[in-house]
Amino acid sequence: MSDEKKKSSIGKKILDIFDVGVTSFSFLMVFIAFMISIVSRYFLRVAVSWTYEISILGYMWAMYFGVAKCMESDSHVVFSLLYDKLGFKGKKFCYILNNTMLAVLLIICIYPSIKSWAASKMVTGVLKIPYKAAFFPYFYMVIMVIARAIINIRKGIHNDVPGNENAELFDAAAEAGEQIESDLSEAKGGKAE
């Protein structure tokens, strides 16, 4: 294995551990905060105010890191009723257009986001965590989604479009159907003579 492939493989493993690890840890924080909140509220009859804040922040971080991972595996929720009905060229056009719009819009929002984030002096209500720390993963998500959108545009240009996994099977079935129709028309034509 070449040095370049080793470096990209190591980088991919680090990103995978980072994405999956942080997302899993964030969901674990949400779960533990919910459990503490439920036990303290209903069994100890004491409200613990920091659990709500931890669960919100944990959910936010899980979302920010999870979005990038979902973009990589193309496993995010989509409503693809129209997309599924399109032919290959239509799917390719929509796939490239969707990823181009996503990348362009996120690139446009980077500067105002950084400006707002840098100017923020706010802290969270209970734990007094600065918003700069709480919302920092947003920038990771934006950068990763832009990078993944560019990769998807490249894949689309090279005809690697989602929803086309069974294109060869559909083409073979269409050819077989055409062959059957031609055989039937020849058989009917032969009997008629």
Any descriptors?
193 residues; mainly alpha; 0% strand
Short overview:
By secondary structure, the chain is an all-alpha fold. The protein is built from 7 helices and no strands.
How would you sum up this structure, described in words?
This protein is mainly α and 193 residues long. The protein has one domain (3-162). The chain is 79% helix and 0% strand. It has helices spanning 3-43, 50-73, 81-85, 88-119, 131-134, 137-157, 167-192. Helix 4 packs antiparallel against helix 6. It is elongated. The chain starts with a helix and ends with a helix. The model has no long low-confidence stretch (mean pLDDT 85).
List the helices and strands and how they pair.
Blueprint: H1 3-43, H2 50-73, H3 81-85, H4 88-119, H5 131-134, H6 137-157, H7 167-192
Helix pairs in contact: 1-2, 2-6, 4-6
Q: Looking at the structure, what is the overall shape?
A: elongated
Structural class: mainly alpha
E-strand count? 0
Determine the fraction of residues in helical runs and give it as a percent range: over 70%
H/E series: HHHHHHH
Unreliable stretches, pLDDT < 50, 5 or more residues?
none
Number of domains: 1
For the sheet with most strands, the description reads: none
